[in-house]
Specification:
With 938 residues, the protein is an alpha+beta fold. Helices cover 15% and strands 36% of the residues. It contains 14 helices and 54 strands. The N and C termini lie far apart (68 Å).
């Protein structure tokens, strides 16, 4: 290997290659034949009568070629056209006279999964990759016309499973076609190949490697010209020349150069993604080749608990990308589309995107370089549960990674291809083999990482698997598993259970994950936090105008209409979304309060249309807002600088003091200093306000500011109050809702109201006499008539995980209903509802009229959209009945006491006048007390 020292201003590289000769465009009209038999070239007829035409780049789905579908796929959007197998693409090309005799290379940016190429009937070779371009060296071509024949097979080439996002019909589809750039690249007898840059901000230099493919029969001096410019301004920083001696036999050898930069270089970071353009030209007489790279200087390493970028600890605030592209069924290859996506991430305070089990196209890296987003790339997902027989969603049944030699070879080669194709990008900060590889052979996989580290140097950090076991050579760990599971190979106490590094621990803010996170030997990033499902907006259906049809959503919408909940679509979407946002806030703040936490990855910001329609995002699958939050609100608790609060409760009586310890989580670009203010308000009225001590807040710190004690005795009525704490003269603030109730609620009884917990003959007799009855029904009903109330929404998807105890997506509360007049609430169940939700019941109201709506309505999962109620009113005989599924008889609980007061005053008022009449027989079935509550079923 040749080593040359050159003094030069330089930079890190992400490669955009430009040959000296102009490339020939291969996009446009191609002839196509489908071939399910996967025939050999010589056996295939290429019958002109059976050919179709397609404009590439495109997929067969976009061209309307393949099997036309009519039914809805289960658990995902439906492809309008499907085809799995080989397809032959053919077109005539013309080599200009000026390029005749040159060597040519075919470049296809993205293909799924295997491609074979012929030129004029001569076989050139094959390419197999899901995440990198397919390339073919054609050799020298004469001027004039030639025939290119391309066979693409989108069937499973190696069994890597069919749930991971590199190859799946969930979200991304198993498309057939060509995406992105398609070109024929002419090459002279001198070529710069595989240019890889290794910038070092600390040393203020850059090493880089490349190959000089040449046809020189004797040792020949080649002039290398390197130019460095600022990308945005175009200002030339430096230009240098050097001479290297090469020979034809050196064509496959790496040349290694070091460029020493004589002035301080500007760093690339998520705060300031400063980019340069570096060009390298090789020339000798009439032979010339030039490669250009847009690069950025970014050093990355670790401490025990943090990712270190450019010698500065950062906090990872990430989100998953799962190939959610519902218009096309494939990822975009244009930079503008990815810039939009990454800017939305930045708007919501995020600095990281994890590509779950797949690798994006070049455009994603270019956009992330510009916007300042740190990317994690992966290749596959193979987990133990995929081997379980009878799982309809996972028919492939892949062997554990490490057991299938063909898969091993493919994945190791794919990892190397990814590094060579995208490794120069400063945004490419993390490489992980795959997702949740719980049953993989870690000894084999670790060897792949060891070899990659040697090849790739310290350009990025490596980890074996997202979640599950820790590997010895992991430089960081993304996990959501209990400590005694994912670090069991490091423990002497395998059975110690410290809980999870995610999930909300308590209905307050005086907790964190420190006991667990501090034990990790490497930085620990919380895996896939959130996953709270929401009720969809049916108006979204009209957005699906591309290759994927929302037949499943149309079916779900029809169920909502049938069950009488369709008219509440906006309300249920908002209520479920607001609850999900509250839970996201609490979980994220728990991470930010944890000194040893390295960060988190959300699942997610946007909906996940596959895997049972997991609608977990506050954005839809198009990255459009659902209206449940906005960047201004979300970045209060998710940004570089966040005001935090530690307090033991969100519920108080007015004879208590609200006590809180205030902190500031700060992982911005530099230290800050500021004075905190606080304000307690209800609606638009300020109750009290004040200031806290001024403090210096170091970068990469959680700084204790001051303790806050607020007397609540000014609040006389039950109230929801908002505490706002922020840094003066800045837009940095955070808010929390509290509920304050009178210590003395007054009388909770009324002689004119019969309150009972049983639906017996005495209750019926009172109703027949025309009396008012409040039925406390938290112990009534059976599994056929009753649904247990859950404060938390179901996890991920009831379709994908059907045996969950929870079947609801939060609760819609008619907050303006007079029954709620003395019980402050929003349209969703805030934290005050949590204490009374445990042990509460709701009841199926399917047998009532479609138009009937309860006062408080748990939101049944949208796959079924059953109508249920936890507080509702009915007319029975001459009487009036209010049913409450919450235990308001437990007046030791201040929230239950206040809800009872509100309901009792409502029932005593003239407003209480239910007009929907039901029979005693119907209620006998609803409130059956003979069976205990069990698993709910549809």
């Amino acid at each position: 290997m040749k080593h040359i020292l050159i003094i030069f201003f330089l930079l890190l590289g992400v490669c955009h290659c430009m040959a000296q000769n102009e490339d020939l465009d291969l996009s446009g009209e191609w002839e196509i034949w489908l071939d399910k038999n996967d025939s050999d070239f010589n056996d295939f007829a290429f019958d002109k009568k059976k050919k179709e035409k397609i404009d590439l780049p495109a997929t067969l789905d976009e061209a309307g070629i393949g099997y036309k579908t009519t039914k809805a796929d289960v658990g995902r959007l439906s492809r309008k056209y499907k085809y799995y197998g080989a397809a032959w693409y053919q077109r005539e090309i013309t080599i200009p006279t000026a390029l005749g005799g040159k060597e040519f290379e075919v470049f296809l940016e993205r293909v799924m999964w295997k491609s074979d190429l012929w030129i004029d009937g001569d076989y050139i070779g094959s390419a197999v990759s899901l995440g990198t371009p397919h390339k073919f060296v054609l050799g020298k071509l004469t001027a004039g016309k030639h025939t290119l024949t391309l066979k693409i097979n989108n069937k499973m080439i190696y069994n890597i499973g069919d749930v991971g996002h590199a190859y799946t019909d969930f979200n991304q589809t198993k498309w057939n076609g060509v995406l992105g750039a398609m070109k024929l690249i002419p090459n002279d007898g001198l070529q710069i190949k595989n240019l890889q840059t290794f910038p070092n901000l600390k040393k203020n230099n850059i090493d880089f490697q490349f190959k000089l493919k040449n046809e020189f029969k004797e040792k020949t001096e080649v002039i290398l010209t390197a130019t460095l410019t600022e990308l945005v301004t175009g200002n030339i920083i430096d230009k240098k020349e050097s001479i290297v001696v090469v020979h034809e036999i050196d064509s496959t050898k790496n040349q290694s150069l070091t460029w020493k930069i004589t002035i301080p270089i500007k760093a690339w970071s998520s705060f300031d993604p400063f980019l340069y353009k570096f060009s390298l030209q090789a020339s000798k007489a009439n032979f010339k080749d030039k490669k250009e790279k847009v690069i950025g200087f970014r050093d990355i390493t670790i401490s025990k608990t943090k990712i270190i970028v450019n010698n500065t600890p950062i906090f990872i605030r990430g989100n998953l990308n799962n190939t959610e592209f519902p218009l096309t069924g494939y990822p975009p290859t244009d930079v503008s589309a990815w810039e939009r996506i990454f800017k939305i991430h930045k708007d919501y305070g995020l600095n990281h995107v994890r590509f779950h089990s797949w690798c994006p196209p070049e455009a994603a890296f270019i956009a992330a370089d510009k916007v300042g987003i740190l990317l994690q790339v992966e290749t596959l997902w193979i987990a133990q549960w995929m081997r379980i027989e009878g799982r309809a969603f996972t028919p492939a049944r892949p062997l554990p990674l490490g057991e299938d030699p063909e898969v091993n070879k493919y994945i190791e080669e794919e990892l190397n291809r990814i590094i060579e194709a995208y490794g120069n990008h400063p945004s490419f900060a993390f490489l992980c083999v795959g997702n949740e590889l719980d049953n993989g052979d870690y000894n084999i996989i670790q060897k792949w990482l060891d070899k990659l580290k040697i090849k790739d140097g310290d350009r990025r950090l490596y980890s074996l698997s997202a979640s599950w076991n820790h590997a010895w050579n992991d430089q960081y760990k993304v996990t959501g598993e209990p400590y005694n599971r994912f670090f069991r190979n490091l423990l002497d106490f395998e059975k110690e259970d410290l809980g999870y590094p995610r999930f909300i621990k308590a209905p307050n803010t005086n907790w964190d994950y420190e006991e667990l996170d501090s034990r990790s030997p490497v930085p620990l990033i919380a895996h896939e936090i959130g996953q709270q499902a929401m009720y969809p907006l049916w108006s979204e259906i009209e957005k699906y105008t591309g290759t994927l049809a929302p037949r499943n959503y149309i079916s779900f919408m029809e169920k909502a209409k049938k069950n009488g909940v369709y008219e509440l679509n906006k309300e249920m979407s908002q209520a479920s979304g607001k609850l999900a946002q509250l839970l996201y806030k609490n979980e994220i703040e728990g991470m930010l309060r944890t000194p040893s936490c390295a960060g988190f990855e959300l699942l997610g910001m946007q909906d996940f249309p596959g895997q049972g329609e997991a609608l977990v995002g506050w954005l839809d699958a198009f990255y459009d807002s659902k209206g449940v939050t906005d960047p201004e609100e979300f970045t209060q608790h998710c940004d570089t600088t966040v005001v935090l609060m530690r307090t033991n409760s969100f519920i108080y009586t007015n004879n208590e003091n609200l006590r809180a310890k205030m902190q500031v989580h700060h992982f911005g670009a530099s230290d800050i200093k500021g004075k905190l203010y606080w304000k307690l308000s209800t609606g638009s009225s300020t109750i009290m306000d004040g200031n806290l001590a001024e403090k210096s807040i170091p970068q990469a710190s959680i700084t204790d500011i001051d303790s806050l004690t607020i007397s609540l005795n000014r609040i006389k009525e039950a109230s929801k109050v908002k505490l706002e704490v922020g840094i003066t003269n800045s837009d940095i603030k955070n808010t929390w809702d509290f509920w304050v109730y009178p210590e003395n609620s007054g009388s909770l009884t009324n002689a004119d109201i019969y309150i009972t917990s049983v639906f017996d003959s005495a209750t019926k007799e009172r109703l027949q006499k025309g009396e008012k009855v409040v039925l406390v029904a938290n112990e009534l009903g059976d599994k056929e008539s009753m649904l247990q109330v859950s404060f938390d929404p179901l996890y991920w998807s009831l379709s994908w995980i059907p045996n969950q105890a929870t079947h609801t997506l939060g609760t819609y509360v008619r907050d303006k209903h007079p029954a709620m007049a003395k019980f402050p609430t929003d349209i969703f169940t805030g934290m005050q509802w949590k204490s009374i939700s445990e042990g509460a019941n709701s009841f199926y109201l399917d047998k009532l009229a479609k138009k009937y709506q309860p006062i408080v309505q748990p939101i049944y999962d949208f796959h079924f959209s059953r109508k249920v109620g936890s507080i509702f009113e009915l007319k029975v005989g001459k009487g009036k009945l209010l049913v409450c599924g919450y235990n308001i008889l437990d007046t030791e609980k201040v929230v239950a006491r206040q809800l009872k007061k509100s309901l009792m005053e409502y029932v005593a008022s003239e407003d209480f006048n239910p007009n929907y009449k039901v029979s005693e027989n119907l209620l006998d079935g609803m409130f059956n007390q003979t069976a205990s509550a069990g698993t709910n079923k549809e």
